[in-house]
Amino acid sequence: MKLLVLVLLLSGLEVILSAPRRSSQFYLNDPNYTPKYWKLIPRTVVPASPLKPPLGVKPDDYFRFIPSFIGTLLPGGQLSWSTNCFTQNKATLDVNQANSTATLSIISTGKTSLLCDSGYLSAYVAGMSLDYFEEEGLHQIQFSGPWLEEEYYDIAHNGIRIFNFTEGITMTTESIFETVLLFFGGLVGANVPEWTAEDNLAFLKDHMNLVMPERPVNRIDIPKSEIKSGDLLGVIRLDGLDPMLSWGMGSRTGHTCIAMWDNNNQLFVAESTVNSAYWPTNGIQLTPWDTWMDQAQNASYNVLHIPLDPLVASKFNASAAWEFFSTVEGLPYGFHNLFTGWIDTPEDNYPPPLTSQLVQLLAPFAEWLLQKEIGIGQTYDFLTQGLNYRLGTKGLTLNQAYMEASKRGISFTELVTMPEQDSWTFVDSNGVVGPSMVCDVFVSSMWKVGGIFGDLKDSIQVTEFTDWDAYTLKIFDANYKRPAACVAADPDIPFCQILGKYRMNLPDYNTYTPFPNMRQKCPTLPPNYIKPPNC
What we know:
Elements: H1 2-18, E1 23-27, E2 68-73, E3 78-81, E4 86-96, E5 101-111, E6 118-124, E7 127-133, E8 137-144, H2 149-158, E9 160-165, H3 168-188, H4 194-208, E10 232-237, H5 241-249, E11 255-261, E12 267-273, E13 283-288, H6 289-298, E14 301-306, H7 310-315, H8 318-328, H9 338-342, H10 356-373, H11 384-391, H12 398-407, H13 412-416, E15 426-427, E16 433-434, H14 439-449, H15 467-471, H16 484-489, E17 496-499
């Protein structure tokens, strides 16, 4: 996941810096295209210590390169807008199906300063163009095929979508660079460099009003007798990815795990994650407690132990949970529904200026980039199989699914917000078929098969959950008497933080009693993340 984000950011930076005409185009089905971005994948782990901290990074620089949506331009139509550089812009779109070309014409006038420029992303589902204009007058952007049926359908019925980079080329490039650095230190090293952690703390404070003060200790080894099967472990690693996920979900964690005792009285941590420079094992996995604590400490994890309520814990059927685990161990991380499990509303889950229009266009590019360009296969199919389930179809590509939905009068936002179903299974790159579970979905699935939701188990789809949904369930011990070491280290939180330099807290923790169809229509707009109680 972190690699995808980094590759996308570096791809955008390369396009901007390498384009002499300040214009660059991309077509998914270009027969003459040669893969190149795979070279960005780190092949070895770089020690974190030699990495130098970035200079002049401001928290509000991060993600400001995301363009703002201007509007949709249909063939034969007209669109007008203003930017910081040009007070008047008018666009038209001419499409010639016979020779598979679409010409976007933009006339810009009223330049506001000598050195300013306006940047645009213009796109349809199979192609995009990045352009920066410095002069007044007519600017033409041509999109060429040959087009597949679904690609022409998109242009004919949905037109070209136009986005504006509001900061100009210099500031956009700087924002991409600073955002790459937010991830970079945590990607290449086994632990998180201090400067990366500090940048991520600044990001969380600026974007989520989240403050994580330093703690007097980094590790507390609580007695294992304090831990029960089913207890939750809440994790955040200040590496760019976890804070970004937290920002999107409105969660104070970026990862979750579940504690489990086996029949031999051995304590384990079960989780769904990916292998990386800091984690050795891929997919749904089981790690002995002591080993996991050492790995987590080496990886710069901040970790909370959140015990189940004693009554809930007494009803948790650990045998059923173990049986379920045996059927899913080794399955890949749940990329197939990472996106649709998060998105519940048409627009109110996207941190501004991200919008559904941009996500719809980036999704085919992301799947192409991972499956064909980098060559890591079907495991990284973020939407295609899930949209086929929603449409009751089989084998449609992502753009074919878009077309089929449109023909039925179903918009993209309506399609992706149809609730995920726990019964759905997905095919991965190695041909294995099974459920798709991100970290909190795996934990919640263990709870579900273990009976924690009782008679509601068939009316709760935990594949719709995020981290926040998991730790706000009213299933935890509200009267937990923490070990003295936990109280001394963190006097004002109700649970034990067993790892980490920075103090965690979970507002809304242990708040909501489970109810049918819960967490299927919840907004997550930063920085306040206001949600209806029964969403």
